[in-house]
Amino acid sequence: LLGCIARCALPSGGWAGVPAGPLSAYTTFIAALCLQMLDEPVDLRAAAAALKGLEQPAGGYVEAAGEPVAQTSATAAVLTFLEASGLSGPGVRHPAAGLLASMQASDGGLKAWAGAASGDLLSTFTALLALGLAGSASCLDLPALGRFVRDCAGPGGGFGAYPGDRQTDVEYTY
């Protein structure tokens, strides 16, 4: 595990998803979390500085530099990382929360990105977790979100990606 994480480390302080790849918001969050769980040193300030380079002017974060629009999972990963590291603040929290709140679809779930047609359970989960850590979950319509989650439940147990998805799997069930 440590070798894999080390091979994907970037000089900026963040991590790529694959060796020699671009900075990844989600991978930086996961790599730092793994290292902390293993009691390995992590330069949280360097990682935070790298992640801030992925911030979009209108709020939120992209997964990798050069992507055109902020995404829910990337924004949630960065917000969670910064909150858990004690490196967040109103200048980060409010724009990120605003972007995440804007992703709530009419079905009650959160969309992966602004152009998505509907919510999905993974985006909904990551956004709710990040907003909860930031003390900002009240910016969502929580009753609608609860209905969305219940509607994702499969008839035989587990959860699918969206309401009516009867192909449940481990990723959406966790």
Verbal overview:
With 174 residues, the chain is mainly alpha-helical. The protein is built from 8 helices and no strands. Helix 4 packs antiparallel against helix 5. The two termini are 22 Å apart.
Report the mean per-residue pLDDT as an integer: 94
> How big is the Rg?
16 Å
First CA to last CA: what distance? 22 Å
- Counting DSSP E segments of at least 2 residues, the number of strands comes to 0
Biggest sheet: strands, sense, closure?
none
Number of helices: 8
Q: What is the SS-derived class?
A: mainly alpha
Choose one word for the global shape.
globular
Percentage of residues in helical conformation: 40-55%
Q: What percentage of amino acids are in beta strands?
A: under 5%
Q: Spans with pLDDT under 50 lasting ≥5 residues?
A: none
Could you give the topology of this structure?
Elements lengths: L1 H6 L17 H13 L6 H9 L19 H13 L5 H13 L18 H13 L8 H10 L18 H4 L1
Task: Offer a few descriptive terms.
174 residues, 47% helix, mainly alpha
Q: Summary?
A:
This protein is 47% helix and 0% strand.
